[in-house]
Amino acid sequence: MAKTFYKSLISHLFEVEIERKESHFSKQLIVSLAKGRYQLSSLRAIYSYEDLYLNFAQAFEVIDWKKIEAKNCLLLGLGMGSVFQLLEKHYTKPLEMVAVDIDPVVIELFSKYIKAQLKNNLTIYEGDASDWIAANQSTFDIVTVDVFIDDIVPNKFLSIEFLEELKTSMSQGACLFYNLLAMSALDKQKARRYFEARFKQVFEKGHIIETKNNYILINDTGFLR
Fold first, then answer.
1. Nearest-5° angle of CA 30, CA 116, CA 55?
2. Strand-pair partners of 48
3. What are the angstrom distances between the C-alpha of 134 and each of 75, 129, 157?
4. Residue 111 phi, psi dihedral angles, 5° rounding
5. ∠ at Cα 156 (163, 73), nearest 5°?
6. Is 34 found in the same domain as 130?
7. pLDDT band for position 40 (50/70/90)?
8. Which of 36, 82, 140, 156 satisfies CB 3.0 to 4.6 Å to 74 for a cystine?
9. pTM, two decimal places
10. pLDDT band at 5 (very low <50, low <70, confident <90, very high)
11. How far apart are CA 159 and CA 154, in angstroms?
């Protein structure tokens, strides 16, 4: 069911469910309207929320986009495309966009509700993002990692091996954004431990951008305002 003026209006008062689908990976995926935006969520986590996807919205605000020269970008973990929507807002030059997601239901919902809103060319690959990165031969100028099953990042995406393979998929001067949950004190402790013990081994100039409920790790402090 498409977004209508009436549903958009009442969604500023309370969330309006639009569609619910079974998913092999997330059990259930729910598309709803909240504050006039499409939101994609599982039973335990929000996967996308248009420009109100605050983890990336807040992170992108502190980046000096004039320092980035990009022709393409890669998103691991598509959700409903909030990262691409926010990226097009901040980086206005043309981009060839590539997304990888393991869940065909996520891809279906993105294609149904959001894809037509994007300005740039987009190629979507259905599959495991770690396998895709291991086999990838291309390089990308902007890379974002937003890989969750509910509120958990699968362990294979937290390995040194994955980070090293990710680095080989980045062009010289590429900018990396890596999303981790930081809602509770324990989440923050785990994220900081990962950042110090693994992320900075591969990306020595790495930095944590603290957002409301997440940490966005970037590969180089030079990209900050």
1. 55
2. 40
3. 15, 9, 12
4. -65, -35
5. 45
6. no
7. very high
8. 140
9. 0.96
10. confident
11. 10
